[in-house]
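Deadline looming. Please check this record:
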Amino acid sequence: MNPTSYNNAVLDACILYPAPIRDLLLNLAEVGLFKPFWSEKIQEEWVRNLLINRPDLTSIKLNVTIVAMDSAFPDANMPEDKVLIQKLRLPDKNDRHVLATAIQSNSKWIVTANLKDFPNDYLKEFGVEAISADNYIASLFSKETDLAYSAFRNQLIRLQNPILNKSQILEIFLKLELHKTHSFILKNPK
């Protein structure tokens, strides 16, 4: 995989919600392994759910994260196409906007934890496939190992509050069910 040729992927709200997964994916995108996409609705969804579960956070603080994401990836935020959304059929109609974002961004992948809500038999009609974060990240590590490790090291360097070492972040990855990702990183002696 040529790091300058992008592999477009929509990051679903459930993948943006856990900061360690979001941070790793954005670091992988920053080094050129793929081009991320989302929509305002996807951003609103992960923020809303995080605020419900983490009353210690504020919408102002999370909006700073959204602004940083949009600044780092200025083409990532796709406008909502209500006509397209209405035409799509998924098991959960509230997920149609995610597929619409994938279609609009010409993304091959929807990175999600809700695979059952995105049946690949239906998605292939649009040239899209749903994939778990662990499988997607592991595929990036297997295709461009050195560049992916570089992205992980960037993530470690940026972890300031709290500062975490490699072992600690790997433990978090296991708790988040990133088993394949954990194995790839553990094999790297650096």
About this structure: The radius of gyration is 16 Å.
